[in-house]
Amino acid sequence: MIRSALSLLLLFYGRSVYGQLFPTPDYPLHEFRNPLDIPIRLAANFGELRDNHYHMGLDIRTEYRENLPVYATADGYIYRIKIEPFGFGQAIYIRHTNGYVTLYAHLNAFYPALASYVKQKQYELQRWDIFLELPPGLLSVKQGDLIAYSGNTGGSQGPHLHFEIRTYPEDANLNPLLFGLPVMDNVAPVIRSLSVYDRGKSFYEQSPNLFPVKGKAPVYSVSPGILILKTPDPGFGIVGFDTQSGSNNPNGIFQGIIYDNGEEVTGFRMDRISYNNTRGINAHIDYPTHAEGGPYYQLLFRMPGYTHSIYQEAKSGSRLHLEDGQIHEIRIAIRDANGNSSILKFRARFQPETNSKKSYPGKVFYPGMLDGFEAPAAAFYLGSTCLYDSLHLDYQETEGEGIDAVSSFHQFGSVRVPLADTMIVRIKLSKPVIQTDRVLMEWVDKKEYEVKKPVWMGDWATASFRSFGNFRLVLDTIPPIIIFSGLVENANLQRSSRIAVLVQDNYKKIKNFRATLDGDWLLFTNDKARAFIYHFDEHCKPGKHELKIYAEDEAGNGASAVIHFVR
Fold this sequence. Notes:
Layout: H1 2-18, E1 42-44, E2 49-50, E3 53-54, E4 58-61, E5 69-71, E6 76-83, E7 90-96, E8 100-105, E9 107-110, H2 112-125, E10 130-133, E11 140-141, E12 146-150, E13 160-167, E14 172-174, E15 190-198, E16 209-216, E17 219-229, E18 234-241, E19 255-260, E20 263-269, E21 272-274, H3 281-284, H4 287-291, E22 298-299, E23 311-313, E24 328-335, E25 341-350, E26 363-365, E27 371-375, E28 378-382, E29 391-393, E30 395-398, E31 409-412, E32 418-428, E33 439-445, E34 448-452, E35 455-457, E36 460-467, E37 469-475, E38 481-484, E39 491-492, E40 498-504, E41 510-517, E42 520-521, E43 525-526, E44 532-535, E45 544-553, E46 558-566
């Protein structure tokens, strides 16, 4: 009886789960094969929530191993190669005959023909980190051809393969799970908590009301039975996650839609996201709550300044109108890319609040406007794409600390409020400085910091940052320190396989690194900004050699070191 009733309930609600906001995407099914030879088990899915970005593909587990063969998922040609210390690490892009592009990242090595081509280009360009575009027909591949070996390079925190499907030429990322890849999934998403906001106020000048959720997939509810809300214009958010069959890994939610008395209002779908817009995650989540150590609350409404968003809104509007004071039947339906659905349902009623509005210090800034704030020793300028919602931004100046400080601390806004785009920061020197070319602008938040080399106009330094908070100018005249790890002068390295070089800097930002062997440029790799490593190859012949290292930091301070060895 219970099972039959539940089936009827899901049948009734299921018709609305897909709804009109999000039509079924028309992507080709089963044209892409598994890029590995082991079953696909996910460590992360498309759209999963990360700091300052959505996850833009699938993280496929490699059974805690590296160097598994990676295969072309469809016919095409190798279109791009990217090598960087963070991000993708070593990555391959393939442009396919079906019109799409696939990407394979965090690789340890390329297949021999590609590895030889890339190395040749690195020596031609005299740099290890590269982004190459290859001409059509140079390196063609067939579905199932070996293209690389899996690894843990770049921004990876454990062995896995990062896999993406993109459009061409728009370069928008699509959800690979919508292309019929063999991923078993008959598990409905989980909902843990509900948050409520007043959309009539600035999102960043209020505290949400939080309600625990009871029940289990696929049906959830909220206690109390009727939520008495102090606003006629509420917005809702949820904490939840999704899993695949045979896995307990908490992955991201594909789609969420909110209904008012049975009518679709608004919702989101993790379907098509560009890297240009991936920072928009900070408008999809309750950023202040997460910044203070709370979970990711995913919002069921779009903030005013979230352009190119993942949201769709009903033709009648995106707001729940509770001003009639009546009880409204609210339903939140979430689903995964395989169609498994869960529902959170509750009732809500508006009851006016008599308390006066709270006041906030500072000037009000609005999304979509060019505006700024100027003080005698600092200025801040926000572009039209900087803010997700309106809010008051306050300014404070305090005395700079430390022997390297050459300006006051200037605080503008709060790190609890995300910036959608870079703002311009201008700071005036408070101390006379001869070497202004060695001055950096520093953003500081507790133990975190970021430095940039500014542009100068008289005593004023200018740089761009993507965070509110504390800013100051610091003088950096200390060059990096170069350390030959485990290597002594005139060492015999006939039995060694590599040379490792460490570069340390007081602001931990190395802008340039160059190595020469007997006067010729030598290829050193660098993963995750750790040691710079040279693997012995044909560029180091038997005999005595001179290795020279030059390193330069963000301020332009340079250091050199020379060592001799026998091979």
